[in-house]
Amino acid sequence: MGNDIETGQEHLPEYSYETAKSSNGMLEKPSSVHEATEHDELAENERWPTPEEERTWERVADNVPSKAFLIIVTEFCERFTYYGVSGIFQNYIQNEYKASGSNPGAIGGGKHMATGLGNFFQFWCYITPILAAVIADQWWGKYKTILVFAVVYLVGDLILTLTSIPSSIRSGGALPGLVVAMIVIGLGTGGIKANVSPMVAEQYQRQRPFVRRLKSGKEVLVDRATTVQSIFNWFYWAINVGSLSAIATSELEHNVDFWPAYLLPTLMFVVCIAVFWAGRNTYVLTPPTGSILLKAMRCMTTGFKQSRAAKKADNAILDDAGKGSSWIEYAKPSNMSGSLPASVTWDDAFVDELRRTLRACKVFLFFPVYWLCYGQITNNLVSQAGEMNTGSVPNDIMQNIDPLFLIVFIPIFDKLIYPGLRRCGIVIGPVTRIFIGFILAAVAMAYAAIVQHLVYSTGPHYDHPGAGHNDISAAIQIPAYAFVAWSEIFASITGLEYAYTRAPASMKSIVMSVFLFTNCGGAVLAFCFNSITSDPHLVKNFAVVSGLMGGFAFLFYACFFKYDRQSRDEERQQQQQSFS
Questions:
Q1: Residue 572: predicted pLDDT
Q2: 316-332 burial by CB neighbour count: b if 16+ within 10 A, else e?
Q3: Using CA atoms, how far apart are residues 88 and 104, in angstroms rounded to an integer?
Q4: What's the pLDDT at 577?
Q5: pLDDT tens digits, residue range 271-283?
Q6: ω before 536 within 30° of 0 (cis)?
Q7: pLDDT, tens digit, for every residue of 207-241?
Q8: Which of 132, 163, 463, 551 is the most exposed place for a label (fewest CB within 10 A)?
Q9: In 58-141, where does DSSP find H-type helix?
Q10: How far is CA 167 from CA 162, 173, 256, 489, in A?
Q11: Pick from 16, 24, 69, 64: which is nearest to 46 by CA?
């Protein structure tokens, strides 16, 4: 990979790295250069780096602010609730209530209904963030949006809990109650997901790299981009710790009933709201900026129109290399002749930010196939485990192997692997990381296809195991979950980081919601596979998903591998402008 592999850097205000030595021997920035913001004030053991230090020293992450940890704990509680209720949906929908010799169940709708409703829930949960992002960026701000939608979320949890009591299940109330709860919970989780991840990164306010002297006397270069990457690693770690709630709810459904299994995450969500509310006076809050989405749409429309008009008049704008400029360049006021229309309420800088945003969103176009792979662990792999020997463990508890691997390996990557690579001069860029994640997901699905073939090749029920388990241990599923977990470290976490760092401040919630919206594409693709998500067709299901992911992985890298190099060039250009 060598020097072509670069990290995705957040676009920050330009500044000078020139320094001057003070009377106490520490290097300080002279008063003649651009002043730091109040968040960039130096402590006694800190100084600004020299240009040589900034270019050559290893970059390390800063400490995560305590207010960011409050939001991380909030996300842990929300994910505890989400995975606690959704982790047992497959059994709840698929199997009969209290049927002898069967896995736990309530509705008895079969595998097709269970997979279909599960895909609908995923689709709904990831389309609602767009609405929440618009509300947050234009009217309420992130804090109020999260708080209001959290109350909506709690109402959905209560509906699900109350309709899962035995009398409701026996009277036929479980299915309509589940559908209503899915809609309400999906609306609530969308309001939280669109805003919580950009809000947690906003709690770290320092913009400029600086040198810190440790207690050991060693000096290190603390970098914002590396810190943001670390924050998202720990944010994702908390998500996966919370997702282990499915272990508890699976045991409760298996040994008690479904209503206590849903009551536990409902109570945890009360804690979620309380923790988030407790930090109300400490959070860094970004105020809403008005109709940014409408402004962006007008800007893009103007760019298209001006571009077409210029081409017809043979008056195209050329870049420095003499090539035709992108259509979005025609939206810049500086490229318009005559008086500006009243509808042009933006400047050239806004167009540059919008171009960067659109470039980031193009990367997200390949994620639906990845989410199709990821979604297998909550439906088809659960059903696969139900056809195997799981001992006294419920079949739907197997999906928790994925977060267990993540809990172990995220700190290893954050503290050992990534820093070790940086010390060797290898910084893996976001596009390369996502590509690696896509390949690992393809490997996971290929392995799942092999496991399913072994299930169908084993008696006593072979390729029609609906009547009972085949004599094969579910433990052989573990590598599939491991590969999915490793793929998340490279693809999913990097996607969150990329959505945040590549979006201008005024569009972070919207860009994050676009990234989350790709989950909807995964759910739509899953619907297309519904005809082969039952026995004896599951080998074909896993094999096709694997081949699709592998092909899209290489297509993704072929389309976007230059983005890593562009990130490097943009960073160097900013440094040269700062040094001049």
A1: 58
A2: eeeeeeeeebbbbbbbb
A3: 9
A4: 52
A5: 999 999 999 999 9
A6: yes
A7: 889 999 998 889 999 998 889 888 988 998 999 89
A8: 551
A9: 66-86, 89-94, 110-135
A10: 10, 8, 15, 43
A11: 24
374: amino acid identity, one letter = Y
Amino acid residing at 369: V
Question: Encoding tokens for residue 130?
Answer: 């767009």
pTM of the predicted model as reported, rounded to 2 decimal places: 0.74
DSSP H or E stretch at residue 27 = strand 27-28
- What are φ and ψ of residue 230, in 5° steps? -65, -40
504: helix, strand or coil:
coil
Query: How far apart (Å, rounded) are the C-alpha atoms in residues 540 and 212?
Result: 55
Size (the chain), residues:
580
In this structure, the strands spanning 46-47 and 20-21 are unpaired
Quick one: how far is CA 408 from the chain centroid? 19
For 235-266, b where at least 16 C-beta lie within 10 A, e where not — what string? Answer: bbbbbbbbbbbbbbbbebbbeebbbbbbbbbb
User: Measured over all CA atoms, what is the biggest interatomic distance in the chain, rounded to whole angstroms?
Assistant: 84
Contact of 549 with 438, CB cutoff 8 Å: yes
Nearest to 202 by CA among 137, 147, 256: 137
pLDDT for 555-569, tens place per residue?
999 999 888 777 666
Q: Rounded to a whole number, what is the distance in angstroms from the first to the last CA of the chain?
A: 31
- CA 417-2-488 angle, to 5 degrees, is 40
- Based on C-alpha coordinates, what's the Rg of the chain? 26
Residue 58 and residue 404: Cα distance in Å, rounded?
A: 31
Rounded to an integer, what distance in angstroms lies between the CA atom of residue 479 and that of residue 123?
A: 27
